[in-house]
Amino acid sequence: MADEESQNGNPDSDRLARGKARLAEITGRSGAEVMAALGEIAPDFARYIFEFGYGDIYSRPGLDLRTRMLSTVAGLVALGHAERELEVHIGSALNVGATREEVVEVIMQMALYAGFPAALDALFIARKVFAERGLTPPQG
Amino acid sequence: MADEESQNGNPDSDRLARGKARLAEITGRSGAEVMAALGEIAPDFARYIFEFGYGDIYSRPGLDLRTRMLSTVAGLVALGHAERELEVHIGSALNVGATREEVVEVIMQMALYAGFPAALDALFIARKVFAERGLTPPQG
Amino acid sequence: MADEESQNGNPDSDRLARGKARLAEITGRSGAEVMAALGEIAPDFARYIFEFGYGDIYSRPGLDLRTRMLSTVAGLVALGHAERELEVHIGSALNVGATREEVVEVIMQMALYAGFPAALDALFIARKVFAERGLTPPQG
Amino acid sequence: MADEESQNGNPDSDRLARGKARLAEITGRSGAEVMAALGEIAPDFARYIFEFGYGDIYSRPGLDLRTRMLSTVAGLVALGHAERELEVHIGSALNVGATREEVVEVIMQMALYAGFPAALDALFIARKVFAERGLTPPQG
Amino acid sequence: MADEESQNGNPDSDRLARGKARLAEITGRSGAEVMAALGEIAPDFARYIFEFGYGDIYSRPGLDLRTRMLSTVAGLVALGHAERELEVHIGSALNVGATREEVVEVIMQMALYAGFPAALDALFIARKVFAERGLTPPQG
Amino acid sequence: MADEESQNGNPDSDRLARGKARLAEITGRSGAEVMAALGEIAPDFARYIFEFGYGDIYSRPGLDLRTRMLSTVAGLVALGHAERELEVHIGSALNVGATREEVVEVIMQMALYAGFPAALDALFIARKVFAERGLTPPQG
After folding, report:
1. Residues D138, C75: C-beta atoms closer than 8 Å
2. Cβ contacts of D80 on chain F, cutoff 8 Å
3. Measured torsion, CA atoms of residues C56, C57, C62, C66, in degrees rounded to the nearest 10
4. Interface predicted TM-score (ipTM) of this complex, two decimals
5. Per-domain residue ranges of chain C
């Protein structure tokens, strides 16, 4: 795979460009805001997120984006402390086609594995994300 | 106990029966083994896992089982310490239709959120689960 | 216990009613506020907290409520990220008969197991809960 | 308090002696084994556990030992990774008067806050501790 | 070592005095503010932080203070939830001679082990600490 | 910086080669064994560890390797669950010039931030690493 990538130029700039496009596609405006703020304190770190996070990992085939983002929401709920990223990626999950109901289901399910406080906090973040988009929570 | 409860349309025995069927469908033999061992030390806790975990949560509509299990794998990787459940539910993900490749993709993606050690440990557990089923790891 | 529960009707509505009463008894006003907010985003999840959390777990015999709540405070301190629940359940511990001194002792002890930052953050939450009730911190 | 302690000699050796006695009282043989092994790699750290852990914290008035140990069990379950200490302190809880049933109740309750995997793993450790003492698990 | 310490008086008051001096040296004003607030809710806990945290641990030879504080920053990033302490100890690292660049390098490196969200949150805290001191972030 | 790197060839293969050399330099034989095993289950993930982990992050200037590895040990202790990586990187710290005493100091210090169980477990891993190299633990 690396060989094909490098045929028409610089693989590093390919990764950077591909990652920037992928991040924009997935996270939309809220990701762009975090990356801009990050660029002020640690521009290399911002570059790694573009290149490795989105240019490498999120550009892999083998798993559809909707499942990737719902899995990411699950992982962030389980971490317990990643509120900023949870807010961004609940939005990302909606951006790539997951429904409000699916987001809420994934969060509720994490109560089984990471406890009710982690799920509860995530549901309140979801409510905020839904409201900012003019969406009501799903019924059920 | 289950017998008495189930006689007159008892919702509790419905939940128990539904949960037992759901757990068997999802986890297969490895889940059954954990539940049997658990029944010896805390039978009520085994009952709650059937009733609440599988009779309530895993019986909800609104999210397909394949996405549920891949999200669960993601959450368990992020927790970092849940090796027994990770082994069971990597198997569950395969049982409900996820591919080896999808399992590996979800685990690798968690390196972004929970760090490489958590993902690395999970990949070694996945290798063990694949091998026990006579499967080779996916290429890539 | 199951026999008595199921004699006069629907065990699920028994669990719900029992859980609502138990939550009110333990958490008082602050629990009610969280549950009301939760009901707007995920009413089923609110129901699970009533039914499973308070109707099942917190209605079990075998451990007195004061020890249950002090153990819950300990667990929430150890989690590190559960600030909302810690605030509610420091209040719950006081509601069911624990003293300010006991709450502070449990939190300080967690420094041994979860580190000083987790204990420090919890002590500041305890100070807030005590102040809202017009209580001064215990001496010592 | 420091004044009274220092009247009859060296407070540091008082703390050390008091801590050693307290650790022996609480943890019995299993604590002694851990401390002996620790003394080989980091004798100062063993001394801090005696002095600070048991000479300071576990020698405080204001909370009875049974509640202290059940709270410690709760905190260790919530941590998720502290298997060695959980085994020692499930034993400690029994040593200072908690019943098997109380230990199991505290562990099950942590499923609400730290998730089922953490509680499940702890129940299997409890089963081992009970078996080593010739105790059967409590019913229920 | 205990013998030498105790020759000229009370080792406990030695530890307390030594710890207070060490905390002031390392954390400066921000540590003093936290300790003052803590003294209002749990004065004994404040004393333990002085005596054990700074009088014992941070007064040990065998590791230079700059490495101690950068390691502490690393550990706090990995914890994920210790924002208050991270803010204090990013400042401490600068106080004892670490550069802005070194602080940022340690935080970025933790992305490998604890994930990008933990590192990202820590970088934003570092930006705040740098700004309060009139420092710009390092380039790179 | 990226410009200079890409002048004489393929930056991706540069990163891979640089990362492989860096990993070998830092981790020695124990890192090689983990990477070989990982290559069997997820070769792309092994490549990311070489490229991003060691080719990018561990090849950065701005922080000396000894401080990098001691900070990594601190972070892994704080995580609590990363036993495999802790064993590898306690070895790495020794490989790049840290002393046994410094490793033990960093681990003991983490007791303050992540609790005694995390530090205790890490000290036992350190004892194993020291013993495999024919080293005795440091005194103190």
Report:
1. no
2. 80-81
3. -130
4. 0.91
5. 2-57, 65-132
